[in-house]
Amino acid sequence: MKFSSLLFFIKMNFGTLVKYINTVRYLKMSQVLYRMWYGFRSLRSWRPEEHDLVPAIRKRKFVIPCEKYSSCSDGIVNVLNREIDVFSDGWVPSSLTKLEIYNVNYFDFLFGSECRSTDDLMIQAWIDSGLTFSSFANDAYPLSLRLVNWIKWGLVTNTDLEFCRDSLSNQVQWLLKNIEYGILGNHVFSNAKALMFFGKYWNGELAAQCTALGEKIFLKEVDEQILVDGANFELSPMYHGIMLEDLLDLYNLYVVFGSSSDESILRVIRKKIELMTSWLYRVTPPDGSYAFFNDSVDGVAVSFQGLIKYMRHLGISYDTDAGSCHMPFSGYCRLENNKMVVLCDGANVGPDYIPGHAHADTLSFEMWLNREKVIVNSGISQYGVSVERLRQRGTLAHNTVSLDGMNSTEVWSGFRVARRAEILNTKFTEVPLSFMAEHDGYKKQGVNSTHKRTWCLSANRLSINDVISSSSEIKFEARFHFHPDLVLYLHEVNRVRVSKDSAHLCDFVVDQSFEINIINTSYHPQFNIQLENQCVSVKGLVQGVRLIKYGVEF
Q: Which of 3, 6, 90, 480 has its CA 20 to 30 A from that of 330?
């Protein structure tokens, strides 16, 4: 090996080592210890035990839960815009990604357009497949979701689950051995939900054990994972919606099987539902879709309208006071007038110890005009480790500023984050209607620069002001991604005209003489979907303190 090649290899590996250090240092010690323990132990000789289980007495009928996006017909399962024939290809096809295998094995399709009692054939087919516990299908997360869905299906269709009782028992015993303490976040919360569903549905020693542990984990995590303003601490609207549905399911369960001793946990669940719903109401766009901040797209979590329908059937209300507001604990802000809604991201990467769904999107925003999407973040189409996954998490895939081609937060691999942006200060005013936030993400990565952005919404204009402070000359690029339905062209040297169906919609204006280009990019509204769209790129060199002004005129 040549010396230059050896030196490059050493530098490359040193850089990776530094990334690992800057990633691991944020983890909880318990995460590290559990990952080591789960990695070194052996469960090859483990076998599930037989347990006496009888269905618990129901106090009332289980309310029909939310309809899911997944569906199934004649063994063809549709998940994440992919079709899989599980009868011919099996439940863990090699052609699928890990995420797609997970989704097939969630059994969300039991709650597609209709919930059918004949779907016991699909459950029996899964049991008969004889998947080992080492299979992806039996990782703790998909196992947890599957266990809940089987029990929910039995409750909705009023089907006796005796035919799958042994399988449920074996699965929950495996789960008890593999609670995801090494990951935490939504994974361990889903583990707790599964334990609570199993424990409430059945009577017996194993059921009591599951209820006790499930409630213990739940009560700890629900306070940690739901912030004071109601946001899920992963700061993804999509994952917020998933957790809100989890809470609604648990409320449904405890009303059906609960006793007087469950009143306190029911109060906790209901309070958190009301809090989370009010937050989601404030960050839900006018078209009812999910805002694309961090790992968040449509077609996964139940829609806001679907969640509200479920809530109403459960007899739960929520605060409908939205309008312009700042949500300081999560960092998001909504600016709104009678024509436009702007959702602004002034949030830190969160939470520190599980930022796997975070993007380098600090100070990005999305904008709707007359209830239509105009400026959009690029969304996500895939998980896993790939160049495209990294690009979709990167700063240039969002409506914000990149300095020297860097990401504002050091996202890497599929779900890792090393050095990360921190919000230095924020300010929200009602008159004029504006929001300001500033971050130090580039300074954390060795570039002595900060980025401050102010949005100001008036009757017919959205003004966006960027202040870049840098001790040395540095390249900047601001990107503004437009929805695929819109067509852009350079109308004047500093003015981009935006139209839809040949009708003028608005103008995007840059006040200074920077390099302005309209470039082709891609938009990912759901997993496995890619659409072409256009993006305004503004480039230049800055040094010292520089103000850059943009505007959307309508």
A: 480
